[in-house]
Amino acid sequence: MTTSLFAADALLPAGWAKNVLLAWDDAGRLTRAEPGAQPSADMPTASGPVIPGMPNLHSHAFQRAIAGLTEYRGEAQDSFWSWRTLMYRFASRLDPAQLEAIAFGLYVEMIEAGYTSVCEFHYVHHDADGQPYADDATLSLALLSAARRAGIGLTLLPVLYQTSGFGGLPPNDGQKRFIRSTDSMLRLLERLKPACDAQGARLGLAPHSLRAVPPEGLREALAGLNAIDSTAPIHIHIAEQTKEVDDCIAWSGQRPVAWLLDHADVNARWCLVHATHMDAGEYSRAAATGAVAGLCLTTEANLGDGIFDLPQWHGAWGVGSDSHICVNAAEELLMLEYSQRLATRQRNVAADTTHPQVATAMTLAAVRGGARAAGRSVAGLAVGQQADFVMLDATHTALAGLPAPDMLSSHVFASHRTSAIDEVWVAGQPRTTSGRHMLHESATAGFVAARSQLQSNTP
Description:
Urease, subunit C, domain 1; single chain; 5-stranded parallel β-sheet; TIM Barrel; 13 helices
């Protein structure tokens, strides 16, 4: 079994390094990440630059099956809220086997696209009538199975969803599969923890949003989570839409992020998903907590959410593919940089003084932030971290003949995205060859069949 790799060029947490020896143990943890090394005669050698695998910090797996199918005008002015109605209709038809097939296909896609772990924000809990399955963890276990089969690292985030709006508005019919009491959620977490531990997955909690979890539910859920695991990740949708901000102000007199910071112990365990619409005070206060901003650029663009103000954010951030309108780590980075260029009318906005190459700076930042949000040791090519890495295709037209930092720039900004990836390894195990997952065909066939069934059953 391969337990080491020599790379002429590798992107370590401090930046690019030459002649790097990577070695890992039987658990897939890096024991060496040594630059300036000399390989032994029989040591495998990377065919191109090696970069860290990207954590995907926000996923709703089932939504991959509707990607591209809502791109028509259904109202005089379509918005996130009209899209949500279509998504609810689709979610109402989903069964456990279909969820697993869709998630398995998606997770294989993610690996091929440079993601080596995923945070699954999972809120479809019950059957089509809104009743718990005989095993209340049925759909969560389907996601665990899909991740195990694909070979992707998983942070499972069961979602607490209780109301349809600020002030405790009762849930609507489209939300009946999501609704849980706080006690029910805590029982689910206790049920899932052994299964997650056995798989090497991380278990956390996702209060869906301030509009979906009243203050008392949020307080009780966080206390219960801390009793189960005081280090578990906590993710929440927040300030994604201007309507959400306006409704929160009408309810509480505060903007959503400000209210959360005043009423919860937000810290480095938290991921503030989207956080698109903050004022200057919220940007400053939220960054100071150590929380990660979870940016889902292609979904935010697809839904017309708005633009995150990256220059105002002096904190950790990472990227996710959310509704999976696009499944590609490089594309999320490109969209983040381009959105900032459009907003500021400048270039190379996400570069920093240490790493003037914008693709290098963004990759390192997104890996750091994504690892923190995942609550897993996937923070890059360093001793003690998981051996998750991507080998770029040095023969690709956009990359060939360039120095390694320019290859990464071309991968993000000038390639056909996944076409510039050669190999992807997760926990020291190869998952792709020539850019294709070993289970690509079966995963794709299952995904297509599940999507077709759902389409034929959806009015």
